[in-house]
Design brief:
The protein contains five helices and six strands, in the order βαβαββαααββ. It starts with 19 loop residues before the first strand and ends with a strand.
């Protein structure tokens, strides 16, 4: 008698079903929105999720300049970078980043929720963030998804 009547199926690059998904970031709190976007980007919302394969969707995020922070994070939160030179530590706030690079706030939040591996570097290429409502991916016919 065969005691194992089922096989474990692992997704790979050939068997995964990738979709194009459109997310609207207008009036969304950055952290909550980024965590849901990171799950979709990684593929954890799918039933055939496999940790060692890129089984997530291609995400298009629009209205990145209209995100919100809770509390006083617009002025008190700091993004720290380091140039590699002595005395090269740079700090910026979300207010300054919004004026200079509005897509950078969401990109930094979502990238911070992904693992630091070679697979995550490949997954990051499936993320497209735009400040306005227009995007150049109409030919892919993205499916609009609303998050809670």
């Amino acid at each position: 008698m065969d005691t194992l009547s089922y096989k474990t199926i692992s997704a790979n690059a050939k068997t995964v079903n990738k979709k194009w998904v459109l997310l609207d970031a207008e009036d969304q709190v950055v952290g909550r929105f980024a965590s849901e976007a990171a799950k979709m980007l990684r593929g954890k919302n799918k039933t055939n999720y496999t940790p060692h394969a890129d089984c997530g969707d291609n995400l298009i995020i629009i209205n990145a300049e209209k995100v919100k922070f809770s509390g006083k994070k617009w002025t008190e939160k700091e993004y720290i970078t380091y140039t590699g030179y002595p005395g090269g530590q740079r700090k910026t706030t979300p207010e300054k980043m919004l004026a200079k690079n509005p897509e950078g706030i969401l990109r930094k939040a979502i990238h911070g929720m992904l693992p630091t591996t070679k697979l995550a570097n490949a997954i990051k290429k499936n993320l497209f963030i735009y400040a306005g409502t227009t995007h150049p991916h109409e030919a892919q016919k993205p499916e609009k998804v609303t998050l809670k």
